[in-house]
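Sequence design from tokenized structure. All designs in this work follow the same two-part layout: the structure record, then the generated sequence. An example of the structure record is given first.
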């Protein structure tokens, strides 16, 4: 069944008693274990979102998150946040060395942590934005939404690597 043109008003997204996400299409059977996938997670995070079944087949395509009613928008937002783990760096407390590899002590929105920067190329600038993505040696992507909003000490540490 081609669901790409399916209306955003004819589905329901909720958790079952075991905590799995369930999508029910209008008049259809519930599909258990669905996942939400952003088509453009960095450049357009609130657009082009697919709800896919466990086999990866698209059930619903959400063109724009803000076009959904509040209950659906809240469910979609929660499901996506659980799938994506990208801590936001609030402050860089210390950097072991100004060459790579280096160990960084940072405060994030999920608490203090340590990350290892293998090479300078692991700090990625997004074109036309002040946003940075830092990929640690363990593959975790740390987000700095606006590097100009960091404190002065954190900006100085970053400038040594940019």
């Amino acid at each position: 069944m081609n669901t790409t043109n399916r209306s955003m008003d004819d589905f329901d997204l909720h958790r079952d008693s075991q905590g799995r996400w369930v999508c029910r299409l209008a008049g259809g059977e519930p599909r258990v274990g669905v996942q939400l996938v952003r088509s453009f997670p960095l450049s357009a995070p609130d657009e082009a979102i697919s709800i896919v079944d466990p086999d990866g087949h698209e059930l619903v395509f959400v063109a724009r998150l803000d076009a959904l009613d509040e209950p659906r928008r809240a469910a979609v937002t929660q499901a996506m946040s659980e799938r994506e783990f990208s801590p936001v760096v609030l402050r860089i407390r210390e950097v072991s060395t100004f060459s790579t590899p280096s160990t960084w002590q940072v405060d994030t929105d999920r608490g203090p942590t340590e990350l290892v920067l293998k090479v300078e190329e692991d700090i990625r600038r997004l074109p036309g934005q002040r946003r940075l993505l830092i990929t640690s040696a363990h593959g975790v992507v740390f987000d700095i939404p606006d590097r100009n909003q960091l404190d002065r000490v954190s900006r100085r540490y970053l400038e040594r690597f940019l």
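The longest strand covers residues 58-64. We note this feature because it recurs in several other targets discussed in the main text.
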